[in-house]
Amino acid sequence: MSIMHELEEAKRAKAAADKRVDELLGRAKEEGLEQIRAIVKDLGLTAHDLARLAPATGTPNTRKLRKLAAFWYRNPADASKVWKGAGPKPTWLKEMNAEAQEACKVAAG
C-alpha cells in the first residue's frame, strides 16, 4: 500500500471520528439541557435567576473606566491651562484659596 493511499484512509478515518465526536457532543449537550430544564421546573427558577449564573461579558482584567469630572478648573491668568481633576493638582490651583478655586470652575466639556 502506498503512503498516499494510507494518507487518504487516515483522512477518511479522521473525518468519520470528527463527525462522531460532534454527534456525541450534541447528544451530551441535549441531555445536559434536559437535566437543567428538570431542575428549573422543580425549583421554579426564573430567567432572572438563571441570568445570574451567566459569566460577565467583556474581556477579563479590563481596566475600570474613570468617572469623568463634572467640571474643570481654568487658570484665570492663562486660559490655556486647564486642570480636569485627574492627577496632581497644579501649582497655580494649589496657591489659590477655596473661593478663588470655586471661581475657576467651568463645566466639563
UniProtKB/TrEMBL annotation:
Q: What is the lineage of its organism?
A: Bacteria, Pseudomonadati, Pseudomonadota, Acidithiobacillia, Acidithiobacillales
What is this protein identified as? Histone family protein nucleoid-structuring protein H-NS
Organism's domain of life?
Answer: Bacteria
